[in-house]
Design brief:
By secondary structure, the chain is α+β, with helices and mostly antiparallel strands. 18% of the residues lie in helices and 39% in strands. Strands 1-2-4-5-6-3 form a six-stranded antiparallel sheet.
């Protein structure tokens, strides 16, 4: 996918400034398309060196479905971050997972294409429809909801 006129790329350095996640829990390697308030396309490269493969499952390495959902949630978080007027004043937290369907296994060597689109965006709540694909085939799809926390309410004025 080549970014359109209203889309932009986001490097891993920028992702690290947006998401609080760090190794081994950062599940987005780069963003290849982003239209604030609308949609995102991100990439997660699945390596045989991922720490979760040591226990899931050592003999038949399959990426845990919950981590694919987490990758979608992180991509959605990046999308929402770019959708706010003052993003540094907000924190996005996963609040609900709905109708998630797991359609194929994800294994070392696969590249997850994470696609998400905003279906509802309010001051304190957002809903995102997402899917993770491998070689054009849907691996996981469903809906994620997030709470949007105003950091001033949590920490007080800064």
């Amino acid at each position: 996918m080549t970014p359109g006129p209203n889309e932009r790329l986001v490097s891993v350095e920028e992702i690290l400034k947006i998401l609080p996640h760090r190794f081994p829990f950062l599940m987005v390697d780069r963003v290849i398309g982003l239209e604030p308030g609308k949609s995102i396309v991100a990439i997660k490269n699945v390596s045989c060196n991922e720490s979760f493969f040591q226990g899931h499952f050592p003999e038949i390495k399959i990426m845990p479905g919950v981590l694919i959902v987490e990758a979608l949630a992180q991509a959605g978080g990046i999308l929402l971050y770019h959708s706010f007027s003052e993003p540094r004043k907000r924190l996005v937290v996963l609040s609900k997972i709905q109708n998630m369907k797991f359609r194929r296994a994800v294994v070392p060597g696969d590249q997850l294409r994470l696609e998400a689109e905003v279906t509802k965006l309010r001051m304190k709540f957002a809903t995102i429809r997402g899917r993770a694909l491998v070689d054009g085939e849907v691996a996981v799809e469903g809906e994620l909801s997030a709470g949007i926390v105003d950091l001033a309410e949590v920490h007080g004025p800064r």
